[in-house]
């Protein structure tokens, strides 16, 4: 049993089939990077796993439990987007603890979770600031902290760094890798950045036209790209 098992998942918007029977089994602690041309269905796949879209068919199984009929908040997943959408009127601590407060988690547990995540992310001194008093990188860290405190079964990242400049992206990429090492968290990470894919992925999943074309380690995709998109993306000579 994987941490996440996606079996024959389909999604249509009206007559348009955006996901055409996607199968993917993700092991606990595995970091999966999802790549593919714009419009191929990457965000739709993440949103369907998260429950923000209903699958038209197939099964989504998380930690052995079929979740198709569960609301997003009951799937125990955390999504991190490129537009981090922090609450402007709340402090860093307030933003990070919001989901836990909604769940009526005990106050001392919330405080411990927030300070643990803030320290992990280098935000220990900034917990009383508001988003507008933070840099872009710090805001992105708050968005990650908000996900971490919930201790989700998996993290779903949809191009989380694409709004940042190159230098910050490189720094955040290293931090995500470090965090993943420490938390051992199962992750699906969408990016169109080749270096992010190569450095973060245990396995890369290449999609095109709503189907998975290839799954393999970065080295496997580099050595034997299944199609021209993969070859172009990975930069191999094929
Ligand atoms: P990607 O993230 O790979 O760029 P998306 O998953 O966002 O692609 O979109 C895949 C396809 O589904 C696109 O053709 C897009 O226009 C379409 N699509 C996505 N969301 C909707 C929606 N809510 N209604 C109709 N079509 C959608
Ligand atoms: Mg997308």
Summarize the structure in words:
Keywords: ATP-binding, Nucleotide-binding, Transport. One of its GO terms (biological process) is carbohydrate transport. Residues 4-234 form the ABC transporter domain. It is found in: Cell inner membrane. This is sn-glycerol-3-phosphate ABC transporter ATP-binding protein UgpC. The protein has 238 residues and is of the alpha/beta class. It is built from eight helices and ten strands. The chain has helices at 42-50, 92-102, 107-120, 136-148, 166-183, 194-200, 218-223, 228-234, and strands at residues 4-13, 16-26, 31-35, 57-62, 65-66, 77-81, 154-158, 186-190, 203-208, 211-216. The strands form two sheets. The chain has a six-stranded mixed sheet, sandwiched between helices. The chain has a four-stranded antiparallel sheet with strand order 2-1-4-5, covered by helices on one side. A hairpin with a 2-residue loop joins strand 4 and strand 5 (65-66). Helix 2 (92-102) crosses helix 3. The radius of gyration is 18 Å and the shape is globular. The mean pLDDT is 92. Magnesium ion (MG) is lined by residues 42-43.
